[in-house]
Amino acid sequence: MSMRVYGFWRSLASFRVRVALKIKGIHFVEIPIDILRGEQFEHGYAEVNAERVVPTLVHEDRSIFQSLAIMEYLDDIQPAPQLIPRDARERAYARSLALVAVADAHPLITPRVCNHLAKAFGADAQAIESWRMHWTLEGLATYERLLTRRSPAPFALGEEPCVADICIAGQIIAAQFFKIDLAEFPYVGQLAERCFALPAFATSHPHEQPGYKAKPG
Ligand SMILES: N[C@@H](CCC(=O)N[C@@H](CS)C(=O)NCC(=O)O)C(=O)O
Prior knowledge:
single chain, alpha+beta, Glutaredoxin, 2 domains, 4-stranded mixed sheet, 4 strands, about 55% helix, globular, binds glutathione
């Protein structure tokens, strides 16, 4: 099985899909779409992804978008190793944790939101940095409260990493981008260490991508 992913080195949503594919051992080729240069609006990319965002997974000529939908699709077509628990309550909990990042914390720091803040409301670089930091901290604080309540080990729901861990790991990368000290979030910090000790997470990190390595400066 081989797949194509339209992604971007810095994209947290692309990171999530990369990790899921690697955990499952599915071969894929990543096609870079530079969202900082606006390539999501060019070259007919809207034909691939009507929302004009990354990632998009292409499998057997079908385009699938939204990172959580992509991860669920991968779990449906190749159930092992499992990314979403079978038990209904655990399944709901895994999705809830995932959605804290996918639906709430992460969308607020995307380029389109920050560009709109600048264009429509005159937010300068400092205001935008503070906005992005605020929503990233909110997400991390929510995760810390959740992880504290359940004290899981070694991963968010137990023995193996699942969609929840993948999504939390994405927010940990956001924390690294904004130089947020994880000492304030000890459970999140421990989870970060466990996740990034795994090759699927470590090799999916934005700084391990060819686009980052080729970046001038
Ligand atoms: N909820 C979507 C988020 C997709 C998304 O916003 N992707 C960002 C990169 S992480 C993007 O392409 N942004 C382009 C833009 O903001 O213009 C998912 O999880 O796939």
